[in-house]
Amino acid sequence: MNAPPHHDDEDDNEQVFLDESDIIHEVAMDNEDLPDADDDSELEEEDSNFVHKFTAHTGELYSVSCSPTDAALVVTGSGDDRGFLWKIGQGDWAFELQGHEESVSTLAFSYDGQQLASVSLDGIIKVWDVSGNLEGRNFEGPGGGIEWLRWDPRGHRLLAGSEDFSIWMWNTDNAALLKTFIGHGNSVTCGDFTPDGNNFSLSWEIICTGSDDATLRIWNSESGKSTHVVQGQREQACEHVVDNNALASHSDSIECVGFAPSGSWAAVGGMDKKLIIWDIEHLLPRGTCEHEDGVSCLAWLGASYVASGCVDGKVRLWDSRSGKCVKTLKGHSDAIQSLSVSANHDYLVSASVDGTACAFEVENFR
Question: Which of 41, 107, 129, 188 could form a disulfide with 161 if both were Cys (CB 3.0 to 4.6 A apart)?
Fold first, then answer.
């Protein structure tokens, strides 16, 4: 028998090449038999349950909004200074909202889905003709950054609150500035028209706004005058009018508030990892939904179910009657910043710091 050849250390470091004559036996292997790779991205995808993922952005997503009339149409805004219109289930279609030079932070469709407003952090407001040629027009606006946008629930009037203490209202059909509301002593952090655009008893429409000056103001939309001022007890006015008991029930900052379609229940989420369901009529908490991390955004799916977006990158669906988590939706690797429900309530769309948006099926949770 021949002795095995001697190899020194240098020989051991030499490259060895094999050809077909060196193959002793072939073994067939299924993919399931292969060892796990160091990269777990494939496993993450398998663990996800989204039906569509939009990945055209190159920065974190700040906002997402679903069209109120087209169940597939979605718009997202990002720190990459771009907005995109895209469609659920149609990965080959997207339209870029060009022209912004800063992060696109706020997006909102008009009540009929024909127009879309977009705002960037430099205060530039653009309105897009969604039903026609998708042309975007710049609107004259406040000198400071825009805090929020709201559409008239019955027409093409757009309301915006600014960090320069003012509120502006335009007719978006002809880009005309209708009114400027002056009276707050600090940044105007929230506002809206009355739900149906009218107050039932007067000839003019009601507008309600809240500010960092700790006041809530009611405005006459025709005269632009403030008719009532409610002085707050805290440094900031809450995003919506919620009883002080709701604020006291959280031990950290409140990040989101949303009313159920019936208007009798509300959900309040905060960085204390809680989503609390409130009975508005009786000013009593119905239940507390405990999370693993802070709650950053929410959306009601219908009368019975509410979705929460969290800092841990997960979206959770809750039965508002029992306070139990009925489903956890996975698809993101970083915090959820915004949630929106499709027009037919079949899809929930999430926008994340990870730069993607995911659409999940939620037709069984209404």
Answer: 188
**Does 41 reside within a domain?**
no
- Token pair in block for residue 182: 């002056």
Do 294 and 250 touch, CB atoms closer than 8 A? no
Tens digit of each residue's pLDDT (9 = 90 or more) over 240-260: 444 455 545 777 777 888 888
Per-residue pLDDT reduced to its tens digit, 7-43: 444 444 444 444 555 444 443 434 334 333 333 343 3
β-partners of residue 133 are: none
Measuring CA to CA, which residue among 173, 106, 116, 180 is closest to residue 145?
106
Number of domains in the chain: 1
Contact between 98 and 88 (Cβ < 8 Å): no
Residue 253 lies in a domain: yes
HSE, side-chain direction, 13 A CA sphere, residue 119: 24
Residues in the chain: 366
Is residue 331, in this structure, part of any structural domain at all? yes
pTM comes to: 0.78
Is residue 61 a part of any domain in this protein? Answer: yes
CATH number at residue 309: 2.130.10.10
Residue stretches of the chain with pLDDT short of 50: 1-18, 22-44, 197-203, 233-243, 247
